[in-house]
Design a protein that fits this description.
The chain is α/β, with parallel strands linked by helices. It has helices spanning 49-52, 78-91, 104-115, 133-146, 177-189, 195-209, 216-220, 225-228, 254-260, 277-280, 282-294, 304-312; strands spanning 9-16, 19-26, 31-35, 57-61, 97-102, 120-126, 130-131, 153-156, 165-169, 236-241, 251-252, 265-270. The strands form three sheets. Strands 1-2-4-3-5-6-10-12 form an eight-stranded mixed β-sheet, sandwiched between helices. Strands 7-11 form a two-stranded antiparallel sheet.
Amino acid sequence: MATNLSKARRGYADLNDNLQMYFETMGDGEPVIFLHQSWWSSFEFEKVIPIVSRQYKVIAPDSLGFGYSPPAPWDWEFEQYCDSFIKFMDFLKISRASFVGQHTGAIIAADLAARYPERVDKLVLGGLAIYESKIRQEKYRRRRLLGWNWMPYIKSLKPGDVIGYEVGILPKQEDGNHLLEMWKEQKRENPDSSLSGIHKATLANMLHYDKGGADAITILLNYDLEKTLPNVHASALLIAGTRDCVKPPVFKTIHYAGSLMSGLVKYQAVYGAGIMGWLDYPEEHAQAVLEFLKEPENYPGITGYELELLSREKLFLDLENK
């Protein structure tokens, strides 16, 4: 699934090993690579790209297994998945770029900054998610036991929950009811988002699971971001929607994540934004990206009581291991 941007140029990058990665690009200037979250694709940044591309060359790939890109090999671990973006840069002859990522995309960008510092300039990391270790390990165990990425997972949820433990899989049904169930899940996770966004997210999820291969979110659960972040020296803006799911008790706060990093770190909140925040609040996200990339040191961000309030927010759920 691609964006609907009529002025975007589109193509495929050869990554070797018979793999290709779909991408869209717009604008001129210094390169900024946008990395989407799971289980979506580059459409997540459809409304942000035209704004940022007025000052930068924006490149938005579909990560392997998502959108128009083929699946990653079954046996890949998360670092190999991240390495595909270095091969992507090599194909496009980009020696160094700034990265903007959301959720999975933010973790990929952080990993690249830690292991390939010469290739990464500045970072804008949306919803940088450090799972609580026990939860991360249990979710990984259940995913490996249940699904192996052939079908969507069914989660144990209570009213108001966004994240829960995987308890089964959602098989395809002749009456198409599985599509309705995925629609309901996207609506539950994004209650204030437009129907257009819900529609795209539903289709993106179903198309991803139809591909197979290594699932980015599953192999991510076997990856320790907490050990990686101290090796990130690039200047970084950690941005979070106040209605996003990256909060305790499932995740550690973005303030904690930033405290582990070794370079300049600033923080920003987008009030009202949830999981689909880049689609729902494009101007606010684009403004933050442009201002930070221009002058990281002088970017005001949020501090003090405002940052403390953001760090206090929690998810209301019960993730007992039953």
